[in-house]
Amino acid sequence: MGTILKGVHRVRWHELQHAYGSATGVPGLLSRIAWGDARTSEAALSDLALWVGELAVFDATVATVPFLWDLAVTETVKPRAGVIELLRTILERGNPPQPRVQLAAHQAVLGRRATAGQLAHASDPAVRAAARDLLAAIDGHPGESCCRV
Fold this sequence. Notes:
Layout: E1 17-18, E2 21-22, H1 26-35, H2 38-52, H3 59-72, H4 80-92, H5 99-110, H6 113-119, H7 125-139
Antiparallel strand pairs: 1-2
């Protein structure tokens, strides 16, 4: 799969869950986001958002976040701004029955603040705006107190 999404096949997706069940389909969605045309990549991103971030965060979310960061910094990825928006959404979502999962998902986003800072200076105005919104969410995040473990 090249340099983006490197290591995606090392993740035991079959052991992870997203909002609708087994996460075995996550690598395919990530690939379509990375290399699909505009329509294909947007549709895949929409599906992925439903699976790993819009409703709540899951163990599949934790495994997905590093690949989302890879996609966000790759200029050939068509829905980069949408990928960054998904990272912000993940940071804003929880999973109260699973506070450790919630904390891990949030930390995976928070840990790349410097990358979000770089994206805030991207040439694409949509990427810049999404990155600035993500930075605001990161800076306003309560840290570990968001998730009572």
